Amino acid sequence: MLTPGATIGILGGGQLAQMLALAAATLGLRCHIFAPPGDHPAFAVAAARTEAAYDDAQALAAFAASVDVVTYEFENVPAGTAAILVDRVPVRPRPEALAITQDRWLEKSFIRDLGLPTPAFLPIDGFDMLEEGVATLGRPSVLKTRRMGYDGKGQVLIGPETDLRTAFAAIAAQPAILEAFVPFSREVSVVAARAADGSIAAFDLCENAHKHHILALTRVPAAVAGATAALASAMAGQIAARLDYVGVLAVELFVLETAAGETLLINEIAPRVHNSGHWTIEGADTSQFEQHMRAIAGWPLGSTARRGRIEMENLIGEDVARFARILGEPGAHLHLYGKGEARPGRKMGHVTRIFDD
Amino acid sequence: MLTPGATIGILGGGQLAQMLALAAATLGLRCHIFAPPGDHPAFAVAAARTEAAYDDAQALAAFAASVDVVTYEFENVPAGTAAILVDRVPVRPRPEALAITQDRWLEKSFIRDLGLPTPAFLPIDGFDMLEEGVATLGRPSVLKTRRMGYDGKGQVLIGPETDLRTAFAAIAAQPAILEAFVPFSREVSVVAARAADGSIAAFDLCENAHKHHILALTRVPAAVAGATAALASAMAGQIAARLDYVGVLAVELFVLETAAGETLLINEIAPRVHNSGHWTIEGADTSQFEQHMRAIAGWPLGSTARRGRIEMENLIGEDVARFARILGEPGAHLHLYGKGEARPGRKMGHVTRIFDD
């Protein structure tokens, strides 16, 4: 159990690291940000920074020596980085969670092996396997690289007319999986935390709308049956427990409407705080960022009680030009990440609106 | 009107500066902290720092050149410091508010000249004046230095038996005022903001309990009549308007129970965010820290709507040892300031508890 004044090391310097650092500061914890050279939002709110490549062993060793625990804001931390750190300092969540979630094949297999529902999937290690896979799963189906996919990157929809050679070339013939297309009615996510003592607390189920594969809007509570929400939460808890996870994680799921009612399929696991949990800053007793800090510090989890009905809107690219109008909107909570250029598709900030339940 | 990415200069590096910096970061603003050499809480959450004395003209000029607006966390900014800055960069609130509020004589005279009620007071510029003053105002009365008093420092109660020579020596024979003793029933405060366009917004009236002259507990709403609360709020607005103030200020008042009902007397003005406003972080739509940033950035003020009934408890000195118990208390919002040593009387953090109204 850390004491106030301890130093949290964070790999990554983006908005998730920034909001983690703000939560840490509120709890009397110091932050040391490790990120590649550049102008990162989290640098501006941290007590210390290391600007170095993620494979700089010397910089990683010095970083490890200067902090009490290491955490990260993204799942694509290289395995070698984690290995260097874990020998020197507690890394939370444990790197095994990274190894599984940064590879879609391992991730989906892990979910299936837990007995949890996921879309049908097959490994694709060459063009022949893609042809066979499409014959098995049918069209439409979705080809996804095993590694480094996010916000829709590294994905190709295989429709009725899609040429398979073109599709395979589009992902540069990388190791991949093929997934059955899921005609879902809603996308939802569970943001949950597991403490060092094994206790688990989930925030209320979020309903997510994407634009161009990037999260645009999160609504809480999700418009699903109470039993569906409880089941999603239980699944997230099962995943966290099996991973011996410490910290906040997010589980994204599809909701299908079937004759028997709502059915859930797990889409993916994010071993970190998550964009769909940003509403917790003002909308829950404890924010996901504070919750993550509590967990990795070995402290008890906070209450996840929600207040009101919530909408969190991402400000993407030029959306940020609306900041003055949002400031004038009574009760709207504006968050800007301090990024310079408002490039298309770049997450510049978000706004949370709370309505009476 | 500043745009996101602008830099806020803050004089002072304590917990108020820290919480201002956290609010600034959330709005996409950068902070540059100017404070004397030392380990200041705000340094750990700011993009830039200058460690220099407040009378270091060269450091002040460089600081002014690096920021878009300057503000401060405490009223005892030296006049010379303000003068150097104000020639180079907008200073908000304007230094005239400092000049008035850092001198009890000017402050009380300002309040009286506005036609607002304050305890009877007299200037004390020598021992003869003290003898005459006590003859006029009677015992008990309170001798207070004109300058540099806070948390009860620089004050002597003149009781029935107090030797006046001893009392005068206790404040080192400094220029002072003598105030009539006020048999108040409650101490309350208004935390309000005035925007650059002159609009004013006050948070709900706070009721404050002190221990050893240090704020121990703030309760919101204050247990006074609605008309009393409205009057206090209107007085704060009048003060802010007359000062042509931009930013958050706090007005501390005494409530007296008289035959005619509740009467208000203004005790003092703090030209800054205030300890009795810390509850607004979780308890109001907009925190006092964000409100101050909005005002000095030339942005519209945010909603001051309150949720629930609120108690804010200061963690003073060894109180901070209770942090783990507070973390385990459902719905309690813990704030620690990242200060090292828990010296007696030192404000180490606070906790905010919200109850259904």
Task: Describe the fold and architecture.
The structure is a homodimer of 357-residue chains. With 357 residues, chain A is an alpha+beta fold. Chain A is 28% helix and 29% strand. Chain A contains eleven helices and 17 strands. In chain A, the strands form three sheets. In chain A, strands 9, 10, 11, 12, 13, 14, 15, 16 and 17 form a nine-stranded antiparallel β-sheet that branches. In chain A, a hairpin with a 5-residue loop joins β9 and β10. The longest helix of chain A has 17 residues, at 226-242. Chain A starts with 6 loop residues before the first strand and ends with a strand. The interface between A and B is large, with 42 and 41 residues.
Largest sheet of chain A: 9 strands, antiparallel
SSE arrangement of chain A, N to C: EHEEHEHHHEHEEHEEEEEHEEHHEHEE
In DSSP terms, counting alpha (H) and pi (I) runs of 4 or more, how many helices of chain A?
Answer: 11
Shape, principal axes of CA atoms of chain A: globular
Task: Summarize this structure briefly.
By secondary structure, chain A is of the alpha+beta class. Chain A is built from eleven helices and 17 strands. In chain A, strands 9, 10, 11, 12, 13, 14, 15, 16 and 17 form a nine-stranded antiparallel beta sheet that branches.
SSE layout and pairings?
Two copies of one chain form a homodimer.
Chain A lengths: L6 E5 L3 H12 L3 E6 L12 E4 L5 H10 L2 E4 L6 H8 L8 H7 L2 H10 L7 E4 L2 H11 L3 E5 L9 E4 L5 H7 L5 E5 L5 E9 L5 E3 L3 E6 L2 E7 L5 H17 L4 E12 L2 E10 L9 H4 L4 H9 L12 E8 L6 H5 L5 E4 L10 E9 L2
Parallel strand pairs in A: 1-2, 1-4, 2-3
Antiparallel strand pairs in A: 5-8, 6-7, 6-8, 9-10, 9-11, 9-13, 11-12, 12-15, 13-14, 15-17, 16-17
